[in-house]
Amino acid sequence: MIIAHNDDLLTEIFLWLPAKSLIRFKLVCKQWFSLISSQYFFNRRTLHHRRYKPEPTLLLGLPETSYYFHLKFRKYGEKLVPYNFSIPLTEQTILSFCNGLFLLQRRNVENPLKHCQIYNPATKQSRKILLNINHRNGTVMGLSLAFDPLKSPHYKIICVRGARRRSPAFWQSWWRCFQIEVYDSETRTWKLSGKTFRAPAGVRFNQGIYWKNGIHWRGIFFDLQDSLIGKHPEIVFPGDTGRDYLYDNYVESYGYLHYIAHMLKRKSVMVFELESDYSQWTLKYRVDLNGDFGISVLSIIRGESEEDSALVLHEPGKVMEYKFEEMSGKEIIDFREEAFYEEHCFQFESNFTFQFIETLAPA
Amino acid sequence: MVTTDEKGPLTAKKKSVIIRSCDGDEFLVSESAAVLSTSLKKILEEKEDRLIHLSDIDNKTLAMVIAYLSTHADDGLSDDLKRSFDQEFVSGKEFDVLKYLVLATDTLQVTCLCYTVAKKMADIMKNKLVEWVRREFDIQNDYTPEAEAEIRRLDAWAWDDRQLEDD
Questions:
Q1: Which of A28, A45, A48, A358 is most worth mutating to test chain B (most B CB atoms within 10 A of its CB)?
Q2: Which residues form the F-box domain (chain A) (predicted)?
Q3: Is some CB atom of chain A closer than 8 A to the CB atom of B165?
Q4: CATH architecture label of B9-158
Q5: pLDDT tens across B56-91, in order?
Q6: What is the pLDDT of residue B138?
Q7: What percent of chain B has pLDDT over 90?
Q8: Shortest CB distance from A28 goes to which of B102, B130, B161?
């Protein structure tokens, strides 16, 4: 059969295969191995996924354990599929997940932090990356991963350090000085990036999210292109929302950056979307939740069209999706029969929920 | 055998061409359908000849490709209808048939059909064993047992799956 050695035709077929099958088919013969491993195929596959986005899936982690589950949408009533990592996650904690690559750190934090690890769950490849120790710029405040295969096959790690302490008052003041250091997987080196900057002490630099070639923390962002720090616009709640207990976070999905605010007393969720020119946060969705035991918000899924967009919700024993267009919720998974189920507990958390995708990129 | 395409009797305005398969069957195709294939279009631009002989596409495969081209050349059909035709077109087809189809789309350079067929093939292949793939594509395993064991060891996770099929 002539197809077997026609790289163009094989590429057309391979483009539609999931990472797992591709990795298995490297064993078919040497020619298939080199085609699947090639930079050419990697680039083609990346471009292909820009046009034909794979179905959205989430990775749900049970905090304090090494259990992860793969959650597919549009398949209802199925069981949670355990996702097996090839490296022990009991010793590692996920710092960030970005377009198919994980950034991990040892659970028992060494002081000073000496290294982190990049892990590709599709190829099961991992690489240890040493941090600059004895760095004149002080403590590591947070590490984030920036990887966009559409831009480059290389990734960057953004390390925020508390700038050198000038006086003991530094630790007490509300505003602090920070410095950013960037690791580039292409050159495999760390470089200081941009000037030192001041930010409120409350910014959680360990919760950075990659969006539009920048890392976004609560209220501020770092643009990788220009090595500049910028401020997000103020989030303006509609007039009728008074004080409430808020549970909020940033979530990126399908190229949109969201601020999701769950107002606990009011049982209402507001989803804001950051305009691509950073001019304002626009209130995109507003959902009123009803439930006897309360509901928590895990994530948001966006898609090509409005009808694909949904809020992913959790109540004890269940994961649901709420479709904005249909204005109704639907159960995706009922895990009350599973061994790990605990009554009256929100076992999954938004911080342990990742927008999952596979990549063939090297770690 | 001369087959008219599905658009009914030919009028004087509508030019048509005759395409002959490798086993000698001839198909009468409207020019508007033929030019959806980049290679047929080139041939038609280069020579006046209204008879095109394809030496590596068999009768059965050619009939399918022409049915596809004629449907897509039909201006009376909406894009939605054409999309559902595409779905119908590949559904239920044997892997063997798809292999010949994908080769024909390569020879004739019909990009959109190539996509549709390649996607269907991937769909069938994705949960198959390596042995199945080698058999279907008639590929000899050129790894030494040591090299094969090494690759299996490195990517062990891709095999620890009990859902793989061999038929």
A1: A28
A2: 1-45
A3: no
A4: 2-Layer Sandwich (3.30)
A5: 899 899 999 999 999 998 888 888 888 889 888 998
A6: 92
A7: 35
A8: B130
CB pairs under 8 A between A and B: 89
Instruction: Note the pLDDT of residue B14.
Output: 62
> Is there a contact between B55 and B107 (Cβ–Cβ < 8 Å)?
no
Strands B51-53, B16-20: pairing is parallel
Residue B130 has its nearest CB partner, among A3, A17, A24, at A24
pLDDT at A175: 72
- CB count within 10 Å of CB A306 equals 11
Name the band, by pLDDT with cuts 50, 70 and 90, for residue A1. Answer: low
Cβ–Cβ below 8 Å for A84 and B157: yes
State the DSSP code for B143: S
Question: Which ipTM was obtained for this model?
Answer: 0.85
For residue B19, list its beta bridge partners. B27, B52
DSSP string, B103-165: HHHHHHT-HHHHHHHHHHHHHHHTTB-HHHHHHHHT----S-HHHHHHHHHHTGGGT--TT-B
Query: Mean per-residue pLDDT for A27-40?
Result: 92
Which residues of chain B are within 8 Å of residue A124 when distances are taken between CB atoms?
154-157
Instruction: Quick: pLDDT tens for A241-259.
Output: 667 788 889 999 988 999 9
DSSP A84-102: --SS-TTSEEEEEEETTEE
Contacts of B149 in chain A (CB under 8 A): none
Interface of B with A in 56-95 (CB under 8 A): none
* pLDDT, mean over chain A: 85
Q: Are A252 and A210 in contact (CB under 8 A)?
A: yes
What is the token pair recorded at A167?
């006086």
Domain ranges of chain B: 9-158
Residue B33, classed as helix, strand or coil, is helix
- B136: chain A residues, CB-CB within 8 Å: 1
